[in-house]
């Protein structure tokens, strides 16, 4: 017997954690009935949650997913090429352990990643999620320093405003305020925090705020150098910490500090990788290379959970020749063949088209579409970088009302803090990008 939408939602609310959720006061969730291209089909059900969304037919509504399922689904849902890659791998084998065994999908994908990432990165560690790839990156940096006889170098230097994931090592380098460090005082490693880089991608190199930031972060690095193993940041765009772009010159300062003091530079491109900011990897804006790189999210085109940590030959061999004699990590589902196959298909699909032109076009469309919000009361800032569009309000977003107001205009977003933003799939047409822009500005005007 088919259950009603409200019955499904009732069972969900009794049983299931959702991201950052409470079980005693669950926030509303919507039931997905299907997904195709850039669209989600949501039930509009009797509980009224998506009640009067534009285009309500037969109990479901179709809306544009302006989040690309948390920035992953760059080619959209049910892409025939990605579907075929998964199906064909299922017919071969879905999984094998990676201890003592290997397979073509992993080897091919590792080669492709080394080809498309910055030149010095030559070696690949596959794991299941972005947070774990950050764990592995930090572990590599610590093992590297031990191997160099610097066992006192156990801390990471980062900047305020960052987000690197939800397990404990990543949490320790998240912004101390937004990352809720106070909840875990005593359990989190105390890292070294520099100030947040000044806002704005287009800041000139002789800008006084930039120079002040560079001096402050250099001073902190200098004073703590003996205890620091590496620097970790999200290059060019801080994502879940606040959708906050900063200038490439800041990355050049960090690269220089790493070289001067013997730190490893870890770039977390889990959000920015695969073209999102307009270059394949955001570090390319700065013309610098990391020693260690984390990628995830869009890696599999949103199909399966997978991330990777890449490193230079110096890092790989120093760690391997160190006291441990090995990199001490090995997840059960390491290099899962289904995930490797679909990741390879997703990257090849991206490379087979003018993705940079497409991202530039989306960028222009979002700039035009969100511009009217800039002059609305209650709006603090409107910013666009690559295929990322952000409206920042003067105070916290009324999540429920804002989500509903955008949905009524045919678009799905997930605002947080004071931000309503979009990271759409790259396959969105100009018209769909215009719809997203109009839905966000319209909802911001209505809800404020
Ligand atoms: C999402 C994200 C992570 C965490 O990835 P998960 O797959 O959610 O563990 C880490 N760093 C950045 C920059 C991210 O955007």
From TrEMBL:
Pyridoxal 5'-phosphate binds at residues 130-131, 268, 331-332. It is found in: Cytoplasm. GO terms for cellular component: cytoplasm. Keywords: Aminotransferase, Biotin biosynthesis, Cytoplasm, Pyridoxal phosphate, S-adenosyl-L-methionine, Transferase. Its cofactor is pyridoxal 5'-phosphate. The keyword Transferase applies. The record marks 20 as: Participates in the substrate recognition with KAPA and in a stacking interaction with the adenine ring of SAM. The modification N6-(pyridoxal phosphate)lysine is found at residue 297. SUPFAM superfamilies: PLP-dependent transferases. Its main location: cytoplasm. Substrate binds at residues 70, 163, 297, 330, 414. It catalyses: (8S)-8-amino-7-oxononanoate + S-adenosyl-L-methionine = S-adenosyl-4-methylsulfanyl-2-oxobutanoate + (7R,8S)-7,8-diammoniononanoate. Pfam families: Aminotran_3. Its EC number is 2.6.1.62. One of its GO terms (molecular function) is pyridoxal phosphate binding. Pathway: Cofactor biosynthesis; biotin biosynthesis; 7,8-diaminononanoate from 8-amino-7-oxononanoate (SAM route): step 1/1. Homodimer. Belongs to the class-III pyridoxal-phosphate-dependent aminotransferase family. BioA subfamily. Catalyzes the transfer of the alpha-amino group from S-adenosyl-L-methionine (SAM) to 7-keto-8-aminopelargonic acid (KAPA) to form 7,8-diaminopelargonic acid (DAPA). It is the only aminotransferase known to utilize SAM as an amino donor. This is Adenosylmethionine-8-amino-7-oxononanoate aminotransferase. It comes from Kribbella steppae.
